[in-house]
Protein 1
Amino acid sequence: MKPVRRSLVLYFVVFVLTFAAMWVFWFAGKETPIKEPTLYDDTLNQDSSLAIDELGPENYAVNVPEIEQQEVIVAVEAETVDYSKPVHLEDVIPNYRGIGYLTGLPADTQNALVIPISVPATQHYDLTICMAADQQVENILSINGQRLHHFRLDGTGKFMRVTFYGIFLEEGKSTVALETLDGGLSIDYLELVNHTTIYTDTFQIADTLVNPNASEEASALYQILCNQWGKQMLTGQYVSSPENRELKLIQDITGQLPAIRFSELGQGNDLAQIEAATDWHLYMNGIVGLMWQWNAPGTDSVYAEDVDFDLAAALDSVDVTALAQMPLADAKSAVADGTLPEGALALLQDIDAVSESLIKLRNMKIPVLWRPLHEASGGWYWWGASGAYAYQQLWALLYHRMTDYHNLNHLIWIWNGQSIAYLVSDDTYDIASVDIYLNSDIEFGSRYEQFLALANMTGRKKLLALSECSSPPNLEMLALDDAVWSFYGLWYGEYIMDSDGKFTNSYYSSSDLYNLYNSDRSMSLKDFLAYQQNTLENSE
């Protein structure tokens, strides 16, 4: 071929490819949603633990026993149950009931004490155990052979009542067992009372996002979350990299993809993370979820023990609302003349930098479930280690800088402070969430107790979500407990795959995962797209 013809052909090919790329970029996924979503990057070929046809029926039905609400009070004195040495009866600690209490429970014993109870009716109960210890001890509560709660008792030397709320029990005989990780526990009595909150709980969720200038796309996504509240829980998965290995594994096992792809900013190449999130939305029409692993200004770590950045000093006597509106040049001048701490300027610079990444998603009209400043009350991250007030100041600065200054109106704000002491202003977040990680041998269930605590914290005015977890919630228990998590986000790594990319069944089985993604109680990506299509058709 002559050079001129070769050049013409080359130009033509480049033109066609460029046009095709532009068409995909602007129009893919904007017409009829994909009925059978398949990952656009099909280069991964991880082996699933079981083939799809080995796992069960196409659709998984949730079985919920019939509830029989009755007023019940059942009390069992510990000294009336069968026990053997070294467990023995004592009457030294004051304020016990009956003729004494049982003590001497040995350490590292699976069934250190087993208490049989007769359950009068099939319903939810609050289980209270009156216990004492001279030093802090850790124990595991099991009911009918299932490990439900890992709890810690302070060593006050006095009896205290520890209550576990909303435990579902069926009529008949049950057993309550205490597994002792430490010795030194004394048991006085057990009390079973019917739980009522599950059956009477009411929420008044806001119809709109807290940002009055929220984008049309963010408002539409929030409306879907509100409409599905209590009907379907949206599936979500964190990815360890832009290659989506976890999503491919889920598709191999379940035939489905999650509705939400979660990923992190701040721990590597943010540009690559933003591009991967953009691809997920453009090519799959999936929901984008982002969290911010914010390294303390001037450091390369998020952990308080690794950094010396003092958040309280950085925001001392600072009007964060005014600072949020301040141009960066003015902030630098304020530092120079001594009216603004250097730490405040460093915070502003970091917020502006991450905002630049998020602006790209805004310009593409991609709504984002946005979760910054997570797990604050734990104190292990620098943004929570300076106390609740400093954290609340930082949250206000972050919200107003991003919303009012950078006009990031595509963000749906998720508060993940995990303590009422760290609760932020009601008009600066849309969703409240909690992160729950359990040992692999503890039944994850619905985590109703944490759900109830979060509902109480937020006055039942916010959507509630399980933003990080070690296992997907159990669908039957979600239905029984009416624990209305809007969505969950399963963390990556050992919680879904091993180092070879194979499914790990340490926390749940592949059957559990299959059933979750193929149940009408959960919303996969396929379900999400179908819901959007139905909504569109009904509005025409």
Protein 2
Amino acid sequence: MDSTMSHTTVQQAGKVGVSDTREKMNIVIAGHVDHGKSTIIGRMLADTDSLPKGKLQFVQDQCERNSKPFEYAFLLDALKDEQAQGITIDSARVFFKTEKRHYIIIDAPGHIEFLKNMVTGASRAEAALLVIDAHEGIQENSRRHGYMISMLGIRQIVVLVNKMDLVNYDEQTYRRIVEGYTEFLQGIDVEARGFVPVSGINGDNVASPSQNMPWYNGKTALEFLDAFKKEKPPVDKAFRMPVQDVYKFTKSQDARRIIAGTVETGQLNIGDEVVFYPSGKKSRVKSFESFNASPPEHLIAGDEAGFQLSEQIYIRRGELAARSDQSPPKVARRIKVNLFWMGREPMTKRKRYLIKVGAAKVECELEDITRVIDASALNSESQKDQIERHDVAECTLLLRKAMAFDVAEDAAATSRFVIVDDFEIRGGGIIREKVEDEQEWIREHVIMRNQKWETSMISKEQRAEKYNQKATLILVTGDKNAGKKTLSRALEARLLADGKIVYFIGIANILYGVDADIKIEHSDEHHKEHLRRLAEVAHLMLDAGCILIVTAVNLTEDDLEIIRATIDPDLIEVIWVGDAVKTDIEISLRVAWNEGVDWNEGLEANLNLIKGMLQDKGLIFNPAR
């Protein structure tokens, strides 16, 4: 069970035994408040003999003693009351069985739980029951839950029109709901497998055909469930494992680095070649590791994994592990998504959010809105420039750096995401499509470079510890005569005097050296190639553990994106020299030469500002800490 679940589990009497060969299926049940979900669940437990022995009679007797009419929803409450007696209880998961299968019902009490579970995996249901009250009709949450279930990629859906007894089992009332909700589902490209008129309290068409509705001759709710197709086991899909952490050991010169995470799909064996995305770095599995247990012979979907690589490569949390002999995940900075927004404040353009996919967490912003749908009314607007609360949007997100993922049609687990703002989950959804961007060709080069890279026996951490600094690219930009070179040379001298491994490169050093073959060209494509080569030179220097200072005139955000495609954005600091930033580039610090201040004093003040920034970010040692 998912560790994030805070509820307890309602367990059936005679749970799945060792000799029980019936297959298992997870289903999710959703619906508007008071439309009868609990009654439906209680009736299924009772009618399939999935309750603890004597529990049904106990609850009925208790209701009679208290002069209270019996309701099947009370069965769930009664099971919860047994928690004090040592029974494990969970209002979110209910077990029951038919002759064909063992089922786990995952209750969907609200939007927040839906979104959280989309990422944690608790909502990996293969089918869904949507409950609609025949008397109240289709409500806002009926539509919202329907849309969110479709966003989870669930396509096996049955709609239960409950409380038919309250409308005297009227066929026309049922038909109106079927017509209205079918129209809604068609608008979100979903087709229900069926509609069933039921009465949870009386048991009509739940497990047994109803005598009260001779006009309905379709399947019961349980017959529909048994007719659902079992999903292909995730072990048969391409291997995917989000890297949760990399454990390093220092005692007794233990050089192990254990890649840890949970296998989402597929399987992994010792000797398999593993590629980590988005970096493209690869190595072979040397061994599996377990804490306080014998290491497994292989890993399969659902396993909490730990393994060593035969060649030690630098891997970070958030990368996505895949096997080189199987289809790779997508890698992109721009993605088309279906997004459900829950924040009280609307999601707006030009604001930074965090997107979380698996273990990866990256800054993002809303780039473009294709259309916005009010999930409660299915009104569609294509001209909106923000996403309101409870809206569902088809939109494009721009990520600060490339992320690895799968699209929803290929793998649900690695396509789901949530959006975090101010430390709270404000939205979530699924990734539908990778969108090409101008840096695509550079990332392809970088992946190839990383796959062919000859790694050193010295790790980045060892260099950082030895040099007492973190490898950093300091880009100094601004107007042509702003004093960038003077400042950069002085910064190099200051850091060298402090004992740092530092090097300064003027852009001309690249243009007339590495770029000599294209220096005479002035096209936009050659400008991009200049920047790519600059970034590759910087990559070498950073791999050596250096602090590299580079000057360039009026760099733009587009220029920076080319550099970021080659170098980890977390290793880049941008300093603008001048009174005002003249381009759209995102900067770390702005410095200027103030009028009336002695040149040397101004230079010293600017050097102190830059050094202070580097210390505050932990890139060089700060003795004050």
Protein 3
Amino acid sequence: MIDGQLFGSMLRSAANNLANHRNTLNELNVFPVPDGDTGTNMYLTISSASADIADDPSVGVVAERAAGALLKGSRGNSGVILSMLFAGIAKGLKGKTTMDGAQFVEALEQGVKTAYKAVMRPKEGTILTVARVTAEQGLEYCKTVQDEKTVLPQLCVYAREILAKTPDMLPVLKQQNVVDAGGMGFCFILEGMREALNGNEIAAENADQGETNAAANFSDMDGEDIKFAYCTEFIINRTDDKDSTKFRLFLETIGDSVVMADDGTIIKTHVHTNNPGKVLEQAITYGSLINIKIDNMKAQHQQLSEKENKDTAAADVIAEPEKPYGIVAVSAGEGFSQLLAEFSVDQVVTGGQTMNPSTDDILRAVNAVPAETVFVFPNNKNIILAAEMTKELTSKNVVVLKTSTVPQCIAALMMFDPSAAVETNEMAMMDAAMNVTTLSVTPAIKDALIGEHRIREGDILGLTESKITVVEKDLHKCAQKLASTAIGKETQFVTIYHGQDVTEAEAEALKDQLCAKFSHAEYTVVDGGQPVYHYIIAVE
């Protein structure tokens, strides 16, 4: 029989097995656009439970506490679904001190039902299918066998068999000749549990695959440990072909963390030093300097440490209502975050594509808002489920507006009326959000065949909402062509948000090109500062 201590070992083993294979799962991403990868999201979700397994002899108690930690730590759609599987498992094991194989399968069936209820339009060929069929076949198997050391290995066999069939259920998987990443993650979890059950608890293979923090813990660092205070970055526009090797050697004598890229035309430079003046003085002998950026890292450390201590102290405090409404929004990019603050957003949660915040991240922001009702804007499809989970974890009234982009959020906020009823605001804001077409431009991270588009790594992709509509080699040609597909006679406003890798001059040039072609619309250029996407363009 499996007791609480053994079940805790099984959970740790499952989390470590998933950690050791998370890159394998991430590489199954069929879409050539960076996203909140399935492997990372599932690993971070389950590690939130395995990092602090309850030391209790009761399997029901361990399952309940693990489910609670999984829910708060859930990230992305795959992480939320995983947390719901364990929430159902905890329900099935409630009150049990021990369990056998048959009881585990029955609890897994409860988990499948709970997970399916959490997803509005569940798709077959995903982790949901793999878990459901595994549980169904497991129930049949347990009609004759209940021993856990026989049942769990058989569940692993069933899971792998149905995983192999997922490409036949989802055309996008078949086109890329891969299986579902979430389903494979489920297999790794079961297989990790099986190994612990047999006395072979799996350990994390690499030190950096232990518990991962959402952000660096600056309060644990000593500012005096920062040997070189100034992070110095700039670009040299070369004026000759002088060898830059001596420059690199010079930088290494007066600093550390030296990173240089010399393509013969420019030298991109990064160094930590106590003498930025000397660095610039030497650099200018190679050419003219642009994009100079010097940050005092000791001062930054102090500010971040103070902020972290303040945030940690208030993390579990639910602010007393001082107003009827408050707003929480997820944002990636300093420019976007500043803009949201101008629209009276109370709390901005850092996150978005490639960095999905956890349910707990969003929950803390909700609890920090001194309002009775808090409107939450996820601004990414892969964050909506995590935002929805906060409703069950706070005494505040949470209304999740299912926005998938920041431009949708901004349009919605323009319709917010502090004097109107909750339902009136919700309807007006979502109507405004749906009136925005969001375009985005980003480089492809891998070769892929999506529909009729044969994509090569490094190609520039133009997306309308989340659908690839343009593939080009040139960034600005792609942006112009993409915008031309969405701007019509009825278009009134076009807002060009340029990312951290695009200059304002480049964005203004794109605006001028579009204005010359579609002069009837009003154009605005905003520094969004977003990663991943060179341009995000809102068409209204």
Protein 4
Amino acid sequence: MTKHRFDEEYDFVIAGSGGGSVPAALVMKDQGRDVVILEKQSVFGGTSAYSGGVIWIPNNHISNPDGTQDSPEQARTYMEAVAGASAQEVTLERRMAFIQGGAEMVRFLEAKGMKFVDAQWPDYHDELPGGRASGRSLTAPLFDANELGDWKPHLAQLALTTDIPMNSSESVHLFVAKKTFKGKVVAARIAWRMMLKKFFGKDLRGAGPALQGRMFQLAKRASVPVWTGTPVRDLITENGRVIGVVAVRDGHERRIGARLGVLINAGGFSRNLEMREKYQPKPTSVDWTLVSPADTGDLILAAMALGAKLDFMNESWWLPGSYYPEGGSAGFHSPNDIGKPHCIVVGKDGRRFANESAGYMEFGQKMYAAGAVPAWAIFDSRHRNTYPWGTMFPGKPPQRLLDNGYLKQADSLAVLAEKCGIHAGGLLDTVARFNHFAADGIDQDFHRGESAYNNYYGDPTVRPNPNLGEIRKAPFYACAIYPGDVGTAGGIVADEYGRALREDDSVIEGLYVTGNSSVAVVGRCYPGAGASVGPSMVFGYIAACHASGANGLPT
């Protein structure tokens, strides 16, 4: 019998309300267990609600309905090919648990009323062994937040997307609306939804709010207690086992027991400058992140105090973007903006250092490797007149963005280089070489436009390569690009059941971990759209299966 006195006691306590929390809670409810979700913020959803709302789930039955397009073996081959050497930093058992558990989790959630659709998003390295040009990503259909009733104000929402009822995959087509029929159809569809919102009161949400709004709804239907505004301050242990948490609710400290265990799903440490300075590559800033304000690493530190093993602490889910001089995000640009024709990205030396159409995490890693922080996006007037830039529509830039220095403009590349502090000779040589590549349709330096994923972000009306276009037409523009992120990708090392491990690889009994609080199962890479939120959900599901002894636990 425990010697501790608790204010409340549950079978399972979940700290955080990101992607993995509701799948875990529903497993517990399915097994007749008591469960509670404790959320630090006043709103539900964590960073998953701020995300694109896409989940990468290999071998799922929605994007692989007849079972012939994917398999556990093909998914494993791909994950290992993408991760390269870092694949050895994650056990095979954990990778295979993710692959098998993901497919099972999707079926489990659908049985509970969740809705998923095939995102039709190519794997980010579809050209590698096991890669799929049709992808392995799922998303949630648009969700009318009014269905949450009184809980609607408690759904988290990223300010950048508040008023746009669209899903992430639609944004790709919207960005070429001036050039393609499909883009125009998507634009018209979004306009229609805006009318529904204005005249009929529908509050349609896409992306992360659609995913987490639906998950929130499932939790409420299953009578899962969700305590918002309740930060978890510490873990309670007895004889080396985690048996509960210390949380603060309504200004009062409460000790909450957890008979079967505690699941940490409280995010990483993107908002903790001290931890960023200690672990992350330099330069770094808490202003370059799009994650939840609650992402301060509190429970990673609490687990460290128990001897938890950490890894990948220098990695983040990089999402390069730009920021206004007065503060605030101006949007992310990799690869949707910089992967379009008539644009390149260079370092201070004026040289390209990566494929601008590559995945955003890879591009962020290469920014740091090249010492290109900030880097500079260089584009001509054709790009500016044709494609959006972050949250800016195509066309003449707002004068205030030129006046405040957010955008640099010049009638020659040499003058543009001088305004940016870029080596002029390097930039002129780079543009001349790139223009030759664009004319031929072959990027001899970085192979831009040679995969389905690259082309997904290109302009299909541009030939011979939808991702390449000459930079010739003045005026020319430049914008500083920084390695923003959507969360840190390192944290507590866990086994195939989601159990936290010590430095000697022994299990910390009663402690489970998922999401950005844990080491990424995909290694130091990003294999496909939703490769952070997807594993969060899967290992939340697996952890609850293990803790409750549920049947169907992945083996």
